Amino acid sequence: MQTKIPPRGTMRLTRRGRLALLAAGAVVVGAAVAVPLLTLDSRPGEPPPPTALVVPEGWRASQVYDAIDRALKLPPGSTRKSIGKAGLQLPGEAQGNPEGYLFPATYRIEKGTTPESLLRSMVDTANSEFNAAPVAAGAQRNAMNVYQAVTIASIVQAEAATQADMGKVARVVLNRLERGMPLQMDSTINYAMNRSTVRTSQDDTRIESPYNSYQRMGLPPTPIDNPGEEAMRAALNPTPGDWLYFVTVRPGDTRFTSDYSTHLRNVAEFNAVHQAAGQGQSPGQSPGGFGGSPQPSVS
Fold this sequence. Notes:
- The chain has nine helices and six strands.
- The chain has 299 residues and is mainly alpha-helical.
């Protein structure tokens, strides 16, 4: 674990912005609609096939692919292989990777539904939400493009222990970017290693990956999950504050601070709580870094 704040860097991907996301309303639009779980024709004694696919907030693209394969009763890996021919309308920064744009909602499954059609519905719904005038214009006014906002929202979705903490987590991310500090979020390490855990070791923070936010400056190259409306709202309208660190000591007790010494005391209490529960960290384990908290991603 590093013990000194890195020098002020020259890279600044964004600066503070305040804007309101579209009022809670038609979150699920177009091809993504909430539907009752009706039953289709099925053989006696067999469970009915699903008529809808629910994508929860915070799922990674890999989880969505697996869920589509199961819903459509396809061999594992089928949906992943279909991405290139799905004709997804993704932003150029995504470079064909739909992570962050598989919008959380309930999607209808009908006769003839294919992985490609489901993926297109998800991306089209995301574009409807993310490219709406208030979001796009607000991001532009504040030197943050929409793709960066979605990436920040995905970190917020993975790191925030509660919805009430989302605005504060977003503020930590923005404060660290503005100061030229590495994000040092455990959620990005988890994404790089395809896992979800509260434990991040020193070795983990040294892995070679563009998603290693301990060693690389700025935002990760893509979102790290598919964020929901509240996380997006937090990324675009973060809670005012000077926080640079946070740690969830116990459920419902996430502590934010701008003082590193205070953060270390909070981390020590986290360790004591988990050691008492028989979940203590092993020697050499990171206490969550400068910006993140040792809490699991919700993806």
